[in-house]
Design a protein that fits this description.
heterodimer, A: 345 residues, mainly alpha, 14 helices, 1% strand, B: 492 residues, alpha/beta, Rossmann fold, OB fold (Dihydrolipoamide Acetyltransferase, E2P), 4 domains, four-stranded antiparallel β-sheet, 17 strands
C-alpha cells in the first residue's frame, strides 16, 4: 500500500531519501484480531481453572485434546482449502478452548478429535475461513457430537473425581446434572443442588460450564476490555430468567426457579463467550438486542418444553442462522435521513 | 477542570427547559457546580459514533505561536481553494508588493490569491501542491529594494483592501462580504472552501445560527487552539462580523473539552456579546466534522449529499477563518498569513508557527530547527484525514493546518487481515453507515450494492479504518468505489 518516490532533499532538512506514502488514516487502534482473541482466551482461564479443580486430569485431557486438534485442523484446512485465517490470529486456540469447555470431562479422545474436525473444517473453513462462517464452530461441533453420540455426550462426571477414569469405572463416577433432572420432570430432586454449588461449580456438567462465578468473572474481563458489549449477555440471561421465571410462577412444583436455570447448564458460557462471537452475531446494537432476546427465548422454551435438557447451543445456532436477516432489518438509517430532529431553539 | 465550575459556559438557552428551573441553583454549589455541568455536557454535546485516537496534543499545544520572518522566496499556488483555480494576473519580471493580487478568482466559487511578500515574479509555472497534485503557481523572490532618485524605496507599502473599517457594525453586510471575498478567505479547517460562498445562502434557505468550529479533533494539530488563546480578540470580532454578514442573532462556538483554557478564554471574551455561546464538546474524533459539530451543538442532522449545513439553517466557519475575517475587514489584510502546527516525533521543535502562505515547507522546517533522523512519513494535515506526502518540496497553502512528522514504523505497515464482522466499524461510523457491509459489496465488485448502502455519503473521516482490528483499508476501498461511481455517473 505504499508508493515511494525519489525526493530532492534540501540541505537544511536532512529529510530521508524516501518517504512512505500510504492512505489515511495514519493512526490505527491498538486492538487487533489476535489481541482480541488473546483476551478471550485469558477470560476463559477462570472457568477452565475451576474445571481442573473439580474434574482434574479428565478435564485437562479433554482441554488439551480439543485445543491441539483445533489448531491442527485449522492448519490442515487452510492448507487444503486455501481459506482465510492464520494460526497467529489465535482464533483456533479460542475455538479449541471453547470446544473443550463444551464437552463432558469423560469424552472419549476420538470424539474430541471429531469435534475439532467438525468445528474447524466443516463449520469454519468450508464456509470460507476466518470471518466467513455462519455458525459458531465450537457450538456446531457440540451439537453434532450430541446428535451423533448422545450417550457419550450426556455422561456427567461427579465433581471431585480428579484422576483419569477408566472405561469400567465410568458408571460409578458419573451422575445427573440439574438440567437432566429437570427434563425428567424431577424438579423436586433439585433440592440436592444448592445455589452456592451451582455458583462455584461443584456440580456435574461440561468441562467449562460448571462454575457460573468463574464464567461471569471472565465475562467481566471481556466487558472491561471492551472486547464484548454488554447487551448480548444481559439480554440473553435476562430473557432466559424471564421465560423460566414465568413458568416457575405458573407452577413452582413442575418448573425450577429461574435462578437455578440461569446458573446451570451452558448459559453463562454461552451468553458471555459463544453468543458474543463477533463473527456470528449481529453488527448493530439493535441487532444484538434482538439476537440476544431470541437466544434467551429459545433457550427457555427448549429447556421447559423441548426434548433436550439443554437449549443454549441450539438457541445460539438458530440465532446465528438469523443473524444476516437481523443485520439487514436493523441497518441504521444514515445520518440526516431521520425525521427532522428536534431543533434546539 | 476548573472551567467546569464556570457556570456561564453553559448556554443560557439550552435544549432542555429543566435547566433553568430545577438545577438553577447548581452553579453556586461547589460539588454540584462541578459535577452536574460535567455530566450534562458529557451526555449532550456530541454525536453518535466516532473513535478515540490518542491525541498527541501535548507535543505542541502549550507552544505559543512563533512568527516566522518572511522568506526570501515564496511559491503561491493558484489552486488553494475548492472551486475554480485562480488566474495569474502577473508575468515573469513584474514587481509585486505584499498584498497585491497575483491571481484573480475565476468564477463565483473561487478566490483571489495575493502576494505574501514584496518582490519580483521569477516564474509562473507548475508546482506540486501539498495535496499531491500539480497546479499553476506564481513564484515571487524578494529583491533588494532599490531607492529611486529621491532616496525613496520604489516599492510601496503593503497593499491593503480599500473599504476596511473598524466600525463594521455600521457597514452593510454586502460590503463586509465583498471585503471577505477580496481578501481571498477560504475555510481554514482543511477543505478550503471559499468563505464568501458559504456566507451567501440562497433566500430559500434561511440561516438562523452560525457555528464556529474550534473542535480541532485531529490528533497532533493545535493551531486552532493557539489561535483561540492568542488571537482571542480577532476571533471575537470575526464572529461578530460573520453574524452581521449572515444576519443571524445566534452563534455557537464548539470546542472540545481537552482545551479548557481556550474554552475559558473565549467564554470570557464573549461575555458581553449577545447571542454567542461557547460550548464544550466531548473529546471524540471526528467532533470537528461539520455535520458532527452541528449535530452536537444544535441536535440537527444535515441531510446526506448534496445536503448542506444551509439545509438545517447553519453555517459553519473555522475559528481561524473567523480571525482572518476580522483582519480582512478591520485592517484590510488579504489572506497571506496563517498559523500552522508542526508536530510529530520527528521534528526537532514541535510547535505553532505563523508563516506566509507560499512559504516552502523546507524553509519552515529549517526555521523550526530541522528534523530528527528517524523520519519516515510526513502527513499534511492531521493523521486521520491528512495526506502522506512523497515530497517535501511543497509550499504552505491557505488550507494547511499543519504537518505531522512520524517515525519509522508509525503507523505499522499493516497487512489487512480477514474481516471478522466484529461491527466496530459500524459503531465507529459518524454517519451511521455500515462499513463492513459496504466493503463486502465493493470487494465483490458490486458497485450498485455499495451505492445502495450509501457509500457516496461517506466523508472519509477514517474512523472505521482506525477501529478495525483486522486493519482493513476500509476508507481507501470507499474512496476507490466513490471514484468509480462518480465516473459512472458522469458517463451516464
Amino acid at each position: 500500500m505504499s508508493a515511494d518516490e525519489k525526493l530532492d532533499t534540501g540541505k537544511a532538512t536532512e529529510a530521508p531519501e524516501r518517504l512512505i506514502v500510504s492512505p489515511s488514516p495514519h493512526l490505527r487502534s491498538k486492538d487487533t484480531t489476535a489481541s482480541i482473541m488473546m483476551w478471550v482466551a485469558i477470560a476463559l482461564v477462570p472457568g477452565i481453572a475451576v474445571s481442573l479443580y473439580y474434574f482434574g486430569l479428565e478435564a485437562a485431557r479433554v482441554m488439551v485434546l480439543a485445543i491441539v486438534s483445533c489448531l491442527a485442523f485449522e492448519f490442515l484446512s487452510m492448507k487444503l482449502l486455501g481459506t482465510k485465517g492464520s494460526l497467529k490470529d489465535m482464533s483456533a486456540l479460542v475455538t479449541g478452548m471453547l470446544l473443550g469447555m463444551n464437552l463432558p470431562p469423560t469424552s472419549p479422545w476420538w470424539m474430541v478429535v471429531a469435534g475439532g474436525l467438525i468445528a474447524m473444517f466443516v463449520a469454519k473453513h468450508l464456509f470460507g475461513g476466518l470471518g466467513a462462517n455462519i455458525f459458531n464452530p465450537a457450538l456446531t461441533a457440540r451439537v453434532f457430537l450430541l446428535i451423533a453420540w448422545p450417550v457419550h455426550m450426556t455422561r456427567w462426571l461427579t465433581p471431585g473425581v480428579r484422576g483419569l477414569v477408566t472405561q469400567d469405572q465410568l458408571e460409578a463416577v458419573t451422575g445427573a446434572t440439574p438440567l437432566g433432572l429437570l427434563s425428567e420432570n424431577a424438579a423436586w430432586k433439585l433440592q440436592a443442588f444448592n445455589p452456592t454449588d451451582l455458583l462455584m461449580g461443584n456440580v456435574g456438567g461440561s468441562v467449562g460450564e460448571i462454575s457460573a462465578i468463574a464464567l461471569i468473572l471472565g465475562g467481566v474481563i471481556l466487558l472491561a476490555k471492551r472486547i464484548i458489549t454488554w447487551e448480548i449477555p444481559v439480554f440473553f440471561i435476562g430473557t432466559t430468567f424471564a421465560v423460566t421465571g414465568a413458568a416457575w410462577l405458573y407452577s413452582p412444583y413442575v418448573y425450577a426457579d429461574p435462578l437455578t436455570h440461569i446458573l446451570t447448564g451452558g448459559l453463562m458460557l454461552g451468553a458471555f463467550f459463544m453468543a458474543t462471537d463477533m463473527v456470528t452475531s449481529p453488527i448493530t446494537f439493535r441487532g444484538r438486542v434482538i439476537f440476544a432476546v431470541g437466544c434467551g427465548l429459545l433457550t427457555g422454551l427448549i429447556r421447559l418444553f423441548g426434548g433436550y435438557p439443554e437449549g443454549v447451543s441450539f438457541a445460539i445456532l438458530l440465532m446465528n442462522a438469523a443473524t444476516p436477516l437481523i443485520d439487514k432489518l436493523t441497518a441504521p438509517k444514515t445520518f440526516g435521513t431521520l425525521k427532522k430532529a428536534e431543533v434546539a431553539k | 477542570m476548573a472551567f467546569l465550575s464556570a457556570g456561564n459556559i453553559l448556554p443560557t438557552r439550552g435544549r432542555g427547559s429543566f435547566r433553568g428551573g430545577l438545577l438553577s441553583c447548581w452553579p453556586g454549589c461547589p460539588v454540584a457546580g462541578r459535577i452536574i455541568p460535567g455530566v450534562l455536557m458529557a451526555v449532550r454535546k456530541t454525536f453518535k459514533g466516532g473513535v478515540h485516537p490518542h491525541e498527541y496534543k501535548e507535543l505542541a499545544c502549550s507552544k505559543g505561536i512563533v512568527d516566522m520572518p518572511p522568506p526570501s522566496r515564496v511559491v503561491v499556488l493558484l489552486r488553494q481553494h475548492l472551486g475554480a483555480p485562480a488566474r495569474a494576473v502577473v508575468n515573469v519580471g513584474d514587481r509585486v508588493v505584499e498584498g497585491q493580487v497575483v491571481g484573480e478568482p475565476a468564477g463565483f466559487v473561487s478566490a483571489p490569491v495575493h502576494a505574501p511578500i514584496s518582490g519580483e515574479v521569477t516564474a509562473v509555472a507548475r508546482h506540486r501542491h501539498p495535496g499531491g497534485f500539480i497546479c499553476d503557481a506564481v513564484v515571487i523572490e524578494a529583491k533588494e529594494q532599490i531607492p529611486d532618485g529621491d532616496g525613496v524605496v520604489s516599492e510601496g507599502a503593503p497593499h491593503r483592501l480599500p473599504g476596511a473599517t473598524l466600525d463594521y457594525m455600521n457597514a452593510s453586510p454586502d460590503e463586509l462580504k465583498a471585503l471577505i471575498r477580496d481578501a481571498g478567505l477560504v475555510g481554514m479547517g482543511g477543505a478550503a472552501f471559499p468563505t464568501h460562498v458559504k456566507l451567501s445562502p440562497p433566500p430559500t434557505k434561511p440561516v438562523d445560527v452560525l457555528i464556529i468550529n474550534g473542535a480541532e479533533c485531529e490528533p497532533f494539530l493545535t493551531c486552532d487552539h493557539r489561535v483561540m488563546l492568542e488571537e482571542t480578540e480577532l476571533v471575537v470580532h470575526g464572529v461578530k462580523i460573520l453574524m452581521r454578514v449572515l444576519g443571524v442573532g445566534r452563534a455557537i462556538i464548539g470546542i472540545e473539552e481537552n482545551k479548557p483554557d481556550a474554552i475559558e478564554a473565549l467564554t470570557r471574551a464573549f461575555a458581553g456579546v449577545d447571542g454567542v455561546t461557547v460550548q464544550a464538546c466531548r473529546v471524540k474524533y471526528p467532533q470537528g466534522g461539520e455535520k458532527q459539530l452541528i449535530k452536537a451543538l444544535t441536535g440537527r442532522e444535515v441531510p446526506p449529499p448534496p445536503g448542506l449545513p444551509l439545509d438545517v439553517g447553519c453555517v459553519v466557519q473555522n475559528v481561524g477563518t473567523a480571525a482572518r475575517v476580522a483582519e480582512a475587514v478591520m485592517e484590510g489584510k488579504p489572506f497571506t498569513t496563517r498559523v500552522i502546527t508542526l508536530s510529530g516525533t520527528q521534528v526537532a521543535n514541535p510547535g505553532n508557527y505563523r508563516v506566509k502562505v507560499g512559504t516552502m515547507l523546507k524553509d519552515v522546517i529549517e526555521f523550526a530547527g530541522g528534523l530528527k533522523s528517524d523520519l519516515s512519513r510526513v502527513i499534511q494535515g492531521g493523521p486521520m484525514m491528512g495526506i502522506a506526502m512523497a515530497d517535501l518540496d511543497v509550499p504552505v497553502v491557505k488550507g494547511t493546518s499543519g504537518f505531522v512528522f512520524l517515525e519509522a514504523g508509525n503507523p505499522v505497515d499493516y497487512e489487512a487481515a480477514a474481516c471478522v464482522r466484529c461491527g466496530r466499524c459500524v459503531s465507529a461510523c459518524a454517519l451511521r453507515l455500515q462499513p463492513v457491509e459496504i466493503a463486502r459489496k465493493i470487494e465483490a465488485g458490486d458497485l450498485d450494492g455499495a451505492e445502495a448502502l450509501h457509500v457516496m455519503e461517506c466523508m472519509e473521516c477514517g474512523s472505521c479504518s482506525f477501529a478495525c482490528p483486522s486493519n482493513r483499508w476500509l476508507v481507501q476501498l470507499f474512496r476507490i468505489a466513490k471514484g468509480k461511481i462518480n465516473e459512472r455517473r458522469r458517463k451516464a
